[in-house]
Amino acid sequence: MKRPTLTLRNNAEPLVMEATSLYALAALLMLVQLPHVLNLPIWISVFGVAMITLRVYARRTPHDVKWRYLFSTPSITLLAVIGAALIRAHYGYFLGRDPCVAFLFILVSLKFAEYRRSADATLLLGLSCILLLTQYFYSQSLIAALVTLPAVLALGHALAVLRDPTHALAKKPQLRLIGKLLLQGLPIALMLFVMFPRLPGPLWSLPDDASGKTGLSDTMRPGDIGSLSQSNEVAFRVEFEGAPPPADARYWRGPVLTRFDGFTWSPEPRLVEAYPGSTVPSALEYTVMLQPHKQNWLFALDQAVSIPSKDGSITPIGSVSDFATLSTAGQLMSRDPVTRVLRYTQRSAITGHFQAPVKPSQVELNVPNNIPRTTTLAKKLRAQSSSANDYVNRVLNRFNQMDYRYTLEPGLLGNNPVDEFLFDSRQGFCEHYASAFTMMMRAAGLPARVVTGYLGGEMNEDYMIVRQSDAHAWSEVYINGVWQRFDPTAAVAPERVENGLRAALPDGEFNNGFANSNAFSWTKKAGLMWDAVNHDWQRMVVDYNNRSQENLFKKIGLPSFALWQLTAFILAISAVWCLWMLRSPLRKKPPLLPAERIWKKLETVLQSQGIEREPAETPQAYLERAYQTLGRGNEELQRIGQTLMSARFAPMTGKDAEAQAGQADAQLGQLRKTLQS
Amino acid sequence: MSSVAPLPQPSNPSATQILDALDTVLLGKRGQCTLALACILARGHLLIEDVPGVGKTTLARAFGGLLGLPWKRVQFTNDLLPADVVGVSIFDSKNQEFQFQAGPVFTSLLLADEINRAPAKAQSALLEAMEERQVTVDGVTRELPDPFFVIATQNPGEQRGVFGLPESQLDRFLMGISLGYPDKEQERLLLANGDTRTEVDAMQPLIDPKVLLQWMNEIDEVHMADSVLQYLHDLVIASRVEQNGLSPRAALGLVRASRAYAFVHNRNHVLPDDVKAVFASVAGHRLTGSVLAGAAAAKTITDNVTAP
Q: Within the 4-63 window of chain B, which residues sit less than 8 Å (CB to CB) from chain A?
């Protein structure tokens, strides 16, 4: 072979490495990288997989100059720098979740390409563990955890192979070793999960890379909620203390919209915080597990009478909680966008109306100028009505009596959408009805607003699932000093409130694949079961926080520890466990032979007489010394001495040895008796 | 407390007879005699280190007589030639050919007196004989009788006119023992009864040489338990902490000597005590080149190795 003209010290090192560890590591890295393919741009994945494939391919010709240059330290460093630059260019920033994970992804692949020494393997194992964990930056769901399982198995495999790469184990002992490795780690993992000190909040707030907001938005145009209702995604889950509210009371209040420009509803830009306290006698307590929707609002049932706080305690409204407030519009707001599953405990009163902390402003009476026909009708009806309530009933009756239809396909509306809907098409979804109804109120001089949120919820085992398809919009009208809830959709399609969207829509319009299936079919059941499993995962694993930890400690009677105590405790337990595990090879030494056991007993007996054996003292010499010093029981000592000496050192079958040991045991008993008398 | 007799120990009746007979000529040296007997039964060569006149030669001669073995004696001097030990070919003018005149080495028990007074060349002549149990003279290899032992005596190293034995040769002696001066009591008895030399010459064999060979084979059958072997190995390893440790040959010798010692005590198995008892005599001269200094070195080792 021609010598390369360029000689770099590192290049001279051939890429020799035994196949088993190379393949084991390659498999591990591939499995660790696999789940990230969904999170990272495709070129990163291609780059990573290509490096690993090339390195495995290069194994065939480890002395090939081409490979030795490609995988030399300068070349690998250059590739890393290029990778970092490309990532920076791709994302526009570097210090954030996505670019950093992408960089780690590339680094792991490059480290593998550079692999030469066994120390590299150790580093690779550590790096792949970290990369594996970064997956949980994206999702902490049960699926995400299951997806990491193959990688964990591969990790065990790599550890087993790297233990002694040149002497690979047979398949069965190998599997047993992997199983043992993982099982040995399990108690530590469990203990760390249960005991490890939890901080009240997230350790660091992850930058919100992906801006895909889901669910309700803070504006409402006709058709918005209709399209949302096609989604079967879970908006949030609720656990109730006690019985859940009846179906017609499950109004989950979300964004409150007051501004209307004739087409789009939007919220008051400046929401006044600090809602003054009110006393509501009976309240329903429940815990919401809100899926991340990247928005600032929380959902509360009907009239919220408390503000949730981080530690799970309940703060009465009127005070300020550490992360949430109740706006004067009665909307529950969190200080930061909800980017991970948020769990909060909340209290609500089922009243159907809302206390008004401040008098309604002109905004709630504002009527755009593209609804002339609506305004005229409203004025006419108002003149005929005896009271505000009478007027509201007349309007609702109109929806109910006249030929209005509740549909997901209302058709296109022109420049006067409210007028066109009310008088011409008369087909609409909840947002059309809420919008039109609110306008009717305002045109008649009654302050009114649109509330969006969810209506309904399905009980699954002991909790309720609220899906995006439960999204809804309704109205609140200011009558007699309170904001009274009216749901014009209920006037058109009462089934919507009682039985959900599917029952209310005309046949064939409801295209939600999942919920469209027969309620009793197995897919529906399986779906609900899966949701229950996910929910349990969420509340038992992901939501296991400092408070649940404290509760658990209290339950099993442990005092609450200081952080350092807990850390010391965990370290101590881990150390003991590791030592115990490491001791296991010694433990496999055959147990003491029976004769040896009785010899030890004899030593103890003689020791109690003040005759302790020196470590270097041979047995016969020891017996001799005991014989000389004991003063009594000499006959017994002589007998047991003879028996034990031959049992310990003479050639005999196991059976004989056992018989001798038994004899010695009896003789020891006699000796003891003599010594005690 | 001294009124209590020691624990009764089994012993080989024939071996006891031999030891008892030795007692009559070597007063109060039972322990050394037992070791010497074990050494011979283990087919080992014995080195006796002492000042002149304490009974080295008597011991060797008594062994020869009691075991019924033909024995010869070579007095090593500083002008001793190898041919004086192994023999020489002499031209026989009658038959017109060289005839081999066998040296004193062609015997069963060779007493090499004051071996360290001879120069290295003569010492090494014994080397092949001791290890290979054969002698090569003028290109012809001649077998030595079986059994063949060398009992060599050497004067303490600090005496004048002494050529210390090289380590390689020391390693060929299974045991090195020292007789030392007799006890006060025993010496008085000796003085009262007069010289025992005539008694030694009159000693009758107590066992048949065939029985002796059979014993030697039986010794290989003596059982050594794993724990005892472990102890023995620990001792060997401990000896190597210092620079000059025991060689594997020495370790093998230690095994044989322990077995023989157990056999002398009429046991079919080795006790840790047997190993400890022979350790000083097996290891001492190898570790220091001198039996007396070696005994102290060996004691340090046995005092520090945990017994089973």
A: 4, 6-8
Mean pLDDT taken over chain B: 83
Compute the C-alpha angle A81/A85/A91, nearest 5°.
Answer: 145
DSSP per residue, B96-149: TEEEEEE-TTSSSEEEEETGGGS-HHHHHHHHHHHHHSEEEETTEEEEPPSS-E
User: Is A315 strand, coil or helix?
Assistant: strand
pLDDT of residue A6: 40
Q: Best residue in A620, A634, A645, A652 to probe B by mutation, most B CBs within 10 Å?
A: A620
pLDDT at A10: 43
Phi/psi for B29 (5° steps) reads: -120, 40
The Cα B56–Cα B47 span in angstroms is: 10
Annotated active-site residue in A302, A470, A487, A531: A487
- Kindly state the helix (H) or strand (E) to which residue A471 belongs, with its residue range: strand A471-479
Dihedral angle, C-alpha B3, B5, B7, B9, nearest 10 ° = 160
* Option in B7, B228, B271 nearest A627 (CB): B7
Q: Are strands B45-49 and B173-177 parallel, antiparallel or unpaired?
A: parallel
Domain residue spans of chain A: 19-173, 224-510, 594-676
Q: How far away is chain B from the Cα of A629, in angstroms, using its nearest Cα?
A: 7
What Rg do the C-alpha atoms of chain A give, in angstroms?
38
Global model pTM greater than 0.80: no
Does ipTM top 0.90?
no
CA-to-CA dists, residue A110 to A33, A48, A68, angstroms: 13, 8, 14
Name the nearest CA neighbour of A470 among A442, A489, A486, A483.
A489
CB contact under 8 A, B225 and A649: yes
**Catalytic residue of the set A36, A157, A432, A472:** A472
How near does any CA of chain A get to the CA of B297, in Å? 15
DSSP string, B168-208: HHHTTEEEEE---PPPHHHHHHHHHH---HHHHHTPPPSS-
**Catalytic annotation present for A293:** no
User: Rounded to an integer, what distance in angstroms lies between the CA atom of residue A30 and that of residue A45?
Assistant: 10
CATH architecture of the domain with residue range B14-304? 3-Layer(aba) Sandwich (3.40)
Instruction: Count CB-CB contacts under 10 A for residue A383.
Output: 9
The yes-or-no answer on residue A430 being catalytic is yes
Give Cβ neighbours of residue A164 (< 8 Å, ≥ 6 apart).
none
Instruction: Spell out the alpha helix ranges (H) of A402-541.
Output: 417-419, 430-443, 488-492, 494-499, 501-504, 513-516, 522-537
The first and second tokens of residue A46, run together, are: 């291609």
Q: Are the C-beta atoms of B123 and B78 separated by less than 8 Å?
A: no
Q: What is the mean pLDDT of residues A420-445?
A: 88
Report yes or no: B78 at the A interface, CB cutoff 8 Å.
Answer: no
**Which DSSP helix (H) or strand (E) runs through A461?**
none
Question: DSSP secondary-structure letter at A650?
Answer: S
**Which H, E and C letters describe A132-195, residue by residue?**
HHHHHHCCCCHHHHHHHHHHHHHHHHHHHHHHCCCCCCCHHHHHHHHHHHHHHHHHHHHHHHHH
Q: Which residue has the higher pLDDT, A96 or A391?
A: A391
Amino acid (1-letter code) at residue A277: G
Give CA separation, A417 vs A371, A477, B234, in Å.
8, 21, 101
Q: The tokens of A582 are what? A: 């490491």
Rounded CA separation A224/A642 (Å): 98
Which pLDDT score is estimated for A23?
A: 85
Mean local confidence (pLDDT), B89-109: 82
Closest-CA residue of A relative to B7 is: A624
Nearest-Cα residue of chain A relative to residue B229: A649
Residue of A430, A432, A470, A535 with catalytic role:
A430
Report the distance separating Cα B150 and Cα A332, nearest Å. Answer: 108
Name beta bridge partners: B97. B92
